[in-house]
Amino acid sequence: MFDVNWRGLLLPLAYLAVLVGTFMTFSTVYRKRKAMQSANLAPWFGPHLQRNIYLSLLHMEPEEGSEKAPKVPDSVIRAALLRRAVEDIHRIIQIRTAKAACSSLLQRGSVGDDLWQRFQRAEKEMEEELRDVVMEANALVPGWGQIIFQSANEIAANKALRDRLEEIEAQTERDKEWWEKRRASIKREFMKELDEESSEKAQVKAGSEDEPVLVDTDTPSATPSGASKKKKGKK
Amino acid sequence: MSTDLETFDFIPLQIDPKSKAISAAPPQQASSSKALETELAALNALHKSLHSLEAPHLVPPPPVPVNPKRSANLNKLRESGNAEYRKQRYAEAVKFYTLGLQMALTRPHWEPSQLVREEVHALYSNRAQAHMQLGNWPEAAVDAEASVEAKRQGNAKAWFRRGRCLVEMGRLAEAREWVARGLEFEGEEKELIELLKEIDGKMEEEKGKRDA
């Protein structure tokens, strides 16, 4: 009764073996490829220069000839950590602004899945980076971790404001030059007009030369502005 | 690229034993990127400014409360500027405002940027007004723009002053655009609306002249 017909079963067994084998190879290959892909995804941010500098300062190598590594003063280390925190602030702002745009684009299917993966990875890395900076800050000066990012935030904002103001102030020279030229050309035209006028009635008026100078020190559109200028002066 | 948290790219750096300034190490110096150089410059500047901290602080204190000393000095400078202005000595007023601006802008960067904006917008706006009295339209226009940059809303005077300067320089199209933008920020501000009307009138006039 239990006489199994091994020969008859050979074919189905072989079939099963092939099936399972195919599945297994497929799944391993697929998973490996997937892992490779996500590992190869370009990072969201470029290299973190400030972080590299900070860590390089902590691991200074001895100079040639001397045994000991040069001693980096703590104040420099603190400044480097603060610079690192400032860069982190820039990155946090970038991530926050990108998040809403990214998720809505993903929902609409306008961007691929890998962009979203890159983004999420950047977010996670950022969190760890912040934690790391807080820990380092606390290690350098007790209690600094609570305020380092407040300071960094102000530094970033102040830098942006001052850059903008400098940019605006840089226009002054150019504008001044332009205005000088323009004023000169207006003056010339004015003189020409006056010359024409005066040549028409040259015999009537002789001493009209000093009048245009007076008018020129004022503005090209001097006529209507005179009243308003007085009004402004009282403010 | 250092995506890992465990690793970092080592940058060969060196430190000047006297000034403690950090710079790229010699073999790299030639090839060192511009980004690295500017970053190191920023680092050294920050390091130097950290030295200005008063004794008990090793690191910048929290942004608030602010050390009141600088604010008091600033106010004094602005008041003297205003006094000179009232006496119609505009060039002196400009000098005081400029000093005040220097003091406001050299405030340590970790102090609240909002405070800097408040202080700076008033000083720029006042200096613009003094420049206008002197007939220095380009300087006044730039100052008023800077004032607006520091504070966009609730700064109608600065919007108006730049608009006026642009008109005085004959840059009507620019002035019109500027005043229209100012109205967006300030709502129905009487002075601005009047200026806009004036600009429109002048533009019409010029058009008429060109057509004639």
Automatic annotation (TrEMBL), chain A:
GO terms for biological process: post-translational protein targeting to membrane, translocation. It comes from the Eukaryota. Pfam families: Sec66. This is Sec62/63 complex, subunit Sec66. Keywords: Membrane, Transmembrane, Transmembrane helix. The chain crosses the membrane at residues 12-30. GO terms for cellular component: Sec62/Sec63 complex. It comes from Chaetomium strumarium. Residues 192-203 have a biased composition (Basic and acidic residues).
TrEMBL record, chain B:
Pfam families: TPR_16 (PF13432). It comes from the Eukaryota. One of its GO terms (biological process) is protein folding. One of its GO terms (molecular function) is Hsp90 protein binding. GO terms for cellular component: cytosol; nucleus. SUPFAM superfamilies: TPR-like. SMART domains: TPR. This is Translocation protein sec72. It comes from Chaetomium strumarium.
